[in-house]
Amino acid sequence: MTAPAMGSPTAPLPAEVDVAIVGAGIMGLALAYHLARTTKLSIAVLERSYLVSGASGRNGGGVRMQWGDAGNVRLMMESIEECRGLAQDLGINLWFRQGGYLFLARTEAGERRLVRNAELHAEVGAPTRLLTAAEAQAIVPQLDVAEVRLASYNPDDGVVFPWPFVWGYAAQAVRHGVHLRTHTAVVKLVPRGAGYTLELSTGERIAAARVVNATGAWSGLLNRSLGIDLPNHPHRHEILSSEPLKPFLDPLVVDLSSGLYFSQSTRGELVTGITLPDAKDGSDTSLTLHSSLRFLGHLSRTLTRLMPITAAMKVLRQWVGPYDVSPDGDAIVGPSPRHPNLIQVCGFTGHGFMMAPAVGRLLARYLADGTAHPMLARWDPGRFAAGAANQREDMIIG
Amino acid sequence: MPERSFVCRCEDVTVAELERTLAGGLTTIEEIKRYTGLGTGPCQGKECIPALCKLLIARGALTPASAQPFTSRPPIEPVTFGALAAAPSEEQ
User: Does residue A48 carry a pLDDT above 80?
Assistant: First the structure.
């Protein structure tokens, strides 16, 4: 049996399409998949490198509904519901495992956040419950809970292995007629009538009535070339995985005070990251992807304090991926200022992967017939110019 | 190589799986790693990359002169969290 076609550097492109999606990360591919399944639009997806080369192949694979804002909780309830049937729809093992998320609060402020969130989740219908330190330890017996004041737990949250998600969406998009071209960059976007001509690194040109910017942390490059000034920017994050072990850890654990998170993937590895205190010269907004020893040390000290048994576990490899940070923590999705046929799907601030199953579906509906999901109003790329942006979400981790 | 031979012993990737991956249109070492899991186990590719390169060269997907290992990820060999936590740092 041959692996399904998942795009290639030689995939033929038509001279003209209805929708050209720039960036074959999970956002671009989930959108392409849903658009191709539900409409007759002709669709091309252009990826400058290989699939999973960007943030979609570099994130920790956490999927949670424990957010601080009702809109995000509801969206992630939709996304997790979508994840339940997705392995079957995409015909690939996604390693989706609902072991829950366990948040630990070690300060009074953290405790207040968890109490407030639990009340909100009860209103929205998410099955989050507050736990004492002893109850948290019953779920993860290896934790040192001496400093833990309160915990919150949602059994429906979970983890996935990010790579097969991307391959699965890619293969199904191609099967439904999407032209998926890898190793081909969009060098220039030239307005042409109401649409655009895309000039490609191969020397080819392709005309599109509508273009979608799904390049995440790299999206500013394309936007600025058209004079579109949006405030999202890259923020460098590090992560690592350990040697694989037998299953021993059910939930993904988050320590609110340090920003440490760790989970055990279905492959058996401990996957873990931490908010790194900014270096002396400020936060790193470059798109460089090299790893640091500083991260290894900082993470190891925090992890071995909270879970002493990990001192004997071995780190296998570390890597880097960028968050695409939006200043108010909300994504940037919809028509661009002064460019109504350039659609943004950016600014997901480190949580695009988990939101993509829901976003792919809702954005496809919007592009197909204008049906607007409630989140699209608050994700409007025009909100910054209008001065309407304000931070609602404080559960941004990592 | 027989098609059931293991190229990556850490992650159980066989010659037959690699052939299927190539037939699906994936041709570079980085994407083959991410589709099959080859090279993501304890040896981090030290055993399997030469065998993969040999296969890619035989299939015309790579030339000997252009063969490169995938991006090397620290640490060079597995290190415990305990040793890393005890290492000197500017934060202490």
Answer: yes
**Any idea which residue has 């995409």 for tokens?**
A90
Q: Report the SS3 class of residue A397.
A: coil
- Which of A10, A142, A296, A303 best tests the B interface by mutation, with the highest count of B CBs <10 A? A296
Residues A227 and A361 in one domain: yes
Q: Do A4 and B24 touch (CB under 8 A)?
A: yes
Span A173-181, average pLDDT:
97
Q: How much is the pLDDT for B51?
A: 94
| Cβ A103 vs Cβ A151: under 8 Å | yes
pTM for this predicted structure: 0.95
CB contact under 8 A, B75 and A315: yes
- Inter-chain touch B30–A310, beta carbons under 8 Å: no
Q: Are residues A247 and A302 in the same domain?
A: yes
Q: What pLDDT, on a 0 to 100 scale, did the predictor assign at position A1? A: 56
B21 CA to chain A: closest CA distance, Å?
Answer: 6
A121 lies in the same domain as A190: no
Range of the domain at A278: 98-158+235-321
Q: Could you report the predicted ipTM of this complex, rounded to two decimals?
A: 0.92
**How many alpha carbons fall within 13 Å on the CB side of residue A79?**
28
The Cα A68–Cα A346 span in angstroms is: 20
Distance CA B87, CA B72 (A): 22
Q: How far is B70 from chain A (nearest CA, A)?
A: 12
| CATH of span B6-86 | 1.10.10
Instruction: For B36-92, give the secondary structure using H, E and C.
Output: HCCCCCCCCCCCCHHHHHHHHHHCCCCCHHHCCCCCCCCCCCCEEHHHHHHCCCCCC
pLDDT digits (tens, 9 = 90+) for A207-260: 999 999 999 999 999 999 999 999 999 999 999 999 999 999 999 999 999 999
For an interface test with A, give the residue of B30, B31, B38, B44 to mutate (most A CBs within 10 A).
Answer: B31
Q: Nearest CA to A75 among A86, A84, A66?
A: A66
The mean pLDDT value for A340-347 works out to: 98
At A385 the pLDDT is 87
Do the chains contact at A311 and B91, CB–CB below 8 Å?
no
